[in-house]
Amino acid sequence: MDAHDAAITLSAAAAAGVFLIAVADRLRVPSIALLLVGGVALGPQALGWIDPATLGAGLETVVALAVAVVLFEGGLTLDVAGFRREPTVIVRMLTVGVLVTWAGAAATLYLLYPDLGAELSIIAGSLVIVTGPTVVSPLLRRIGVRPRLHHILYWEGVLVDAVGVFVAVLCFEWIASAGDQPALAPLGRFASRFAIGAGIGAAVGLATGYALRKRWVAADHTNIAVLAAALLALALANAVLPEAGILAVIAAGLVVGVRRPPQLKELKRFKLELTEVGIGLLFVLLAARLDLRQFLDAGWRLVAALAVLLLVLRPIGIALSTWGQHFSWRERAFLAWMAPRGIVAASMASLFALRLDALGYERAGFLETFTYAVIGTTVIVQGLSAPAIASWLGVKRRTRGAWLLVGDPHVAVELHRRLRQAGGRSLVLAAGGPPGDALASDDVDALADGPFDPAAIDDPRIADVEAVLALARAPEINDRICEAWSEVVGAAACYRWDGHPADGRPGRAVWTDLPSPAEVKALVEDGRCAIDAVDVGEPEDAARFGPSLRPLLAVDDGHIVLLDGDVPEGAPAVVALRRRIPGLAGLVRDAIVIDRHAPTRAEVIGALLDLAARHAPDLPRDRHAADILAREEAMPTAIGAGAAVPHVYDDHCPQSMCFVANVAGGLDWHGPDGEPVRLVFLVVSPAGQAAEHLRSLAAISHLVSSPGVATVLARQRTRGRLLALLRELE
């Protein structure tokens, strides 16, 4: 190996890889598609700028180190909560699915290529087991599928790499050592690799996570220290048993991620950048080795093998893995379509082709031909079509529109429930107070992590969030919430509700004239306030909103809009803070709309007493009617705003009750403002209960004196809507 030429090859491959990844991101196409084309174009068969042969045996070392970095990053970003959501399917895909792909691919190749032999057919089948996070993860981010599908495909992509490598090594050792050792010896090493890789990886991960949490490593050295730990896990495991390092780096990354050190967010960014450099370097190098003539020589049989692998074996594996797990056919179809292969398949194919060629297998080069054909086909066909397929199948995650409510769990949960009732989507994160039982309810979509925990930001549901509302008790916690989440949704979409003005603090202050969330919680518990979902109704009905019924958030076709004033025209529902009127709750029992022309006062009173008699059958209707009409002649009970409150005591009434009449044409009731009376509230109270009676009269007076309320009630023309508005205002 010439050091000068090797340095040029590595430098050119790394630079070309990063450039092509950037171009692919700009064009919104799978990066591996451009890397494959670029590697071939820059290789010896075209421009000749990159020649992997100059690396000699060093190519294996470069591949091993780059793959280690890629898989460590994959383990680091695994979401354990995601595994818990679909453990059965994930385990089946790593066992049953692997066996179906391996056995099916090997049998297909053996039948289509008799000259290949059983040995190479078996090892070729093992090489296409893997899918790989290097391709799956960017695709999932770009498509935005349902969380359960995201978790399944990502967990499969990361862990199946280790399984696939171990199976491929098992096959290689079985072929390479035929006749030299007991037949079960490779199987014993296969099991040993799992134990050694998992054990060493977990130990290194625990030690690294502990050191990070104790802050034994300076902040400036955190990233390189963790990189060194990943390489240490690789070296230790491979020193004990070759190829065990693959699982060791995945296990180390997973354990560090589960330990959640404070530096996890920065670590993930650093490892993602290293991973992209490694992917670019490897794919360009390995693609440059390809002999395009072998693809032409493979002919129609290669196309047939690809069709069986993608259209028969993968769907069978998915069907068996999801059997009895309540997946729709659309979800199964998408899982069956999404199986792009990545860097691990490419690197193992190249390494085994080199090793088997050295052992005298003339068709060893077919391993690269077949594997790269699978990679190219799956990346280009599945990668480019996946967004359209996901849309057609209806498995895409809903577009952004959810709000993240971070803060006092009681107020956050109340807002969350009312937003859901109004048709909006939200998530809850507790902060600044004990969560209690508020987050444990089945109807609350809550994140288990803390508001500053990187794991919360990595939750797939966060991809739906378009705005964050901080409502912790302490203003300084709201500052931290807005500062942390502004990196996710943008500073303009971070709001805080704590009763304090902006004054240069992070986030946009809202509802500064209202009580703070902590005060609202106390008012709700005391029965003096409520957070409600309210149907706006006709545009004119919005006049009832004001200080007593303060709109906070509007929901229109699932989209949530923050309100700090009037309700926008056309919004069907709002979430509002309602100040309860003492004595009004449960007072109104029934209502009637009288829309015939010019009814008399006696007719209206009679109709209301008929309603009262349904609730108190022994009520002396005629006597009460005469008493009420006589009192109204002497001292009218019209109180202004188009309302009158006739009232009476009754011996048969169990508690105060109110019955409401909406008189469309209005009545001359000699009110203080001279306005016709269109709302008549008949209050019937138990005899001798003067305090209760006065409280009921005060509640009605408070109700109609609220700005806009009497006008909105008077314009209703159906009993149902009138009662609904009265219940809403209790």
Fold blueprint:
Blueprint: H1 3-27, H2 31-42, H3 58-76, H4 80-85, H5 87-112, H6 117-127, H7 133-143, H8 147-176, H9 185-213, H10 222-240, H11 245-259, H12 264-288, H13 292-321, H14 329-337, H15 343-358, H16 365-393, E1 402-407, H17 409-422, E2 426-430, H18 454-458, E3 465-471, H19 475-489, E4 494-496, E5 508-509, H20 517-525, E6 529-535, E7 549-556, E8 559-562, E9 573-579, E10 588-594, H21 601-615, H22 621-634, E11 638-640, E12 643-644, E13 647-650, E14 657-667, E15 677-686, H23 690-705, H24 709-714, H25 719-728
Parallel strand pairs: 1-2, 1-3, 3-4, 4-5, 10-14, 12-15, 13-15
Antiparallel strand pairs: 6-9, 7-8, 7-9, 11-12, 14-15
Helix pairs in contact: 1-2, 1-12, 2-12, 3-10, 3-11, 3-12, 3-15, 5-6, 5-8, 5-13, 6-8, 6-16, 7-8, 7-16, 8-9, 8-15, 9-10, 9-11, 10-11, 10-12, 12-15, 13-14, 13-16, 14-16, 15-16, 21-22
Task: State the main characteristics.
3 domains, 25 helices, 730 residues, Na+/H+ antiporter like fold, elongated, 5-stranded parallel beta sheet, Rossmann fold, alpha/beta, Mannitol-specific EII, Chain A, single chain, 6-stranded mixed beta sheet
Can you give a write-up of this model?
The protein is of the alpha/beta class and 730 residues long. The chain has three domains: 284 residues, Na+/H+ antiporter like fold; 178 residues, Rossmann fold (3-Layer(aba) Sandwich); 141 residues, Mannitol-specific EII, Chain A (3-Layer(aba) Sandwich), CATH 3.40.930.10. Helix content is 57%, strand content 12%. The protein has 25 helices and 15 strands. Strands 10, 11, 12, 13, 14 and 15 form a six-stranded mixed beta sheet that branches. Strands 2-1-3-4-5 form a five-stranded parallel beta sheet, with helices on both faces. The chain has a four-stranded antiparallel beta sheet with strand order 6-9-7-8. A hairpin with a 2-residue loop joins strand 7 and strand 8. The longest helix is centred in the N-terminal third of the chain and has 30 residues. It is elongated, with a radius of gyration of 36 Å. The protein starts with a helix and ends with a helix.
